[in-house]
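Box 4.2: Ligand-aware structure prediction
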Amino acid sequence: MIIDVTTDAPHALDLACDLLSKGKVIAVPTETVYGLAADAFNPLAVRRIFQMKGRPAHNPLICHCADIGMARTIAEFNADSMRLAEALWPGPLTMVLPKRSGATLPSETTAGLATVAIRIPTGYTQKLIGRYGRPLAAPSANLSGRVTATSATHVANDFPDLDLILNDGPSRVGIESTIVKVDRDGCRLLRPGGLSCEVISEITGLAVLPPAPTSTVLAPGMLASHYAPSALVRPNATSVEPGEAYIGFGQASVPGLERAIASFNLSIDGRLEEAAANLYATLKLADNTGASVISVAPIPSSGLGLAINDRFCRAAAPRK
Ligand code: TXA
Ligand code: MG
């Protein structure tokens, strides 16, 4: 069932809390993307999320909290992580932190790691978690490896049998949160996302270090193939081949556009925020044309462009 939270908010809150306390999985709107949420402390409910998504059990979930007090019940903060939390939460930032000793989070949620990923989302879902009183484990609400959901309809297409989808319209940011790992070595980027490294540094004065090149995969969302539509994806396209669906950015004209079977634009004005917000819905529309290849214009890699290019590269990566 889909409930519109802009017109039926109090009823939706009660229903959502009731389902969560019974161990059900529900879809929640966040400013980044839609999530598939369950009580982070309920191992059976969390296991159900993995089954529904077809997600490998070694890929841990983000625990969404209502406030820093709730976050501190499951994670240890140091001076840097507290600074980031106070400056940037609620918002599109996830921090990977040491799990608090004694926190009884089930290994289903953390994939047995000694760290836990935490985010405080903005808006309706922050309110819901506050009312529920416990953290919600929530991955993005898409089948594992496929294109992320940024609307209630996207969620319903992937999961038609969900008990509840809370609809708060299209996700404002449109791309997943930025994930950083914060420890005594500083703040390291694990996944570029909806908050640019430039803005994180500007607001907090902390440097965001690039991902450690030699490390094993720390955020499994960084695995090569991800966010994949049915069509093949051809990023950085400077021309269009016959029969392709084309996704443009800005106003530059591209040779061969008349040969495309359909064309879209992430942002006519060349604005990266607008492009991020349109990214996944456009990728789904381009895929629905039935084209076997989606070509994508070059996109600058500064600011949110880093995350947008990351997603197109993974969408283009060879699949198993
Ligand atoms: O914006 C978002 O982050 C959305 C919304 C719903 O909050 N959530 C999201 O979740 O994108 P998901 O599961 O699709 O991606 C979470 C990423 C995964 O790549 C996972 O491996 C990583 O976070 N992660 C979770 N716990 C971790 C940990 N302890 N260490 C490193 N990476 C972790
Ligand atoms: Mg995801």
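In the box above, the bound molecule is threonylcarbamoyladenylate. Residues 139-140, 148, 221 surround magnesium ion (ligand 2) (CB under 6 Å).
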